[in-house]
Write a structure and sequence with these properties.
The protein is α+β, with helices and mostly antiparallel strands. 43% of the residues lie in helices and 18% in strands. It is built from 7 helices and 7 strands. It has a 7-stranded mixed sheet, sandwiched between helices. It is globular.
Length: 234
């Protein structure tokens, strides 16, 4: 789950604040018609601004979605390098710096997941992998094992696009949910997934499969108190 910070959110300033740019309250001689035209202009400006922001967001996502494709055999040799590069961001998080040198998924495991058609790469203009997502079917759910974006391409939307691709594939396969395990408080982990609709699971909702994964992570040295399981219902 070593996804870097995504592109900062565009401003969500209320429409009223935008309208204040055209405040006529200090023009006592303005006619009612003039004020009406100004108000109409303000509303049109606000609507057009919000439409532009919305189109920009979805346009950016669509552009990156077009650069997502299934992993092929030639990609596999690069995926471990991407995961290692992505993990360097943990050097900024006190107590988890060691993850920058931790284990990465093996080439054999990448090939296995690719053969099951649950693995995708984000590619650049030269069709070279810059990020990947590896997942697996678990009963009527899809479980995401890893999502990583190269350090030099983090913050450009590749992580979101990979995740949206996986979610779309899970829906196409008529699965009921997408799950993962991650760090609860690291900004580019659980909070990132929450913005895309995932929710943290309470202890009673985790279930046997995800509990087993969390325990396996603890056995491999991850601090279980900082980990959580998450689910997105489809």
């Amino acid at each position: 789950e070593f996804v870097g910070p995504e592109t900062p959110q565009l401003s969500r300033r209320p429409v009223k604040a935008i309208g204040h740019r055209f405040d006529h309250s200090h023009q006592p001689n303005a006619s009612r018609r003039s004020r009406h035209r100004s108000s109409h202009s303000e509303n049109s400006y606000a609507r057009n601004t919000l439409l532009s922001i919305s189109r920009a967001r979805w346009g950016l996502l669509a552009a990156y979605m077009a650069s997502i494709r299934p992993v092929n055999n030639d990609d596999v040799e690069h995926l471990s390098e991407i995961e290692r590069s992505a993990a360097q961001i943990f050097r900024k998080w006190p107590g988890l710096e060691w993850l920058a040198e931790g284990d990465v998924m093996s080439a054999e495991r990448h090939r296995e997941l690719a053969l099951r058609h649950f693995s995708w790469v984000a590619v650049d203009e030269d069709d070279f992998p810059t990020g990947f997502l590896s997942a697996e079917r678990a009963g009527d759910e899809m479980h995401i094992w890893e999502i990583s974006v190269s350090a030099n391409r983090q913050g450009e939307g590749f992580g979101s696009a990979l995740l949206q691709k996986a979610i779309a594939e899970a829906r196409d396969k008529r699965l009921l949910a997408v799950t993962l395990t991650t760090f609860s408080e690291v900004p580019w982990n659980a909070p990132f997934y929450q913005r895309l609709g995932f929710r943290k699971l309470a202890a009673d909702d985790v279930g046997k499969r995800l509990n087993g994964l969390l325990q396996a992570e603890a056995d491999h040295g991850l601090p279980i108190a900082q980990r959580c399981a998450m689910r997105l219902m489809l």
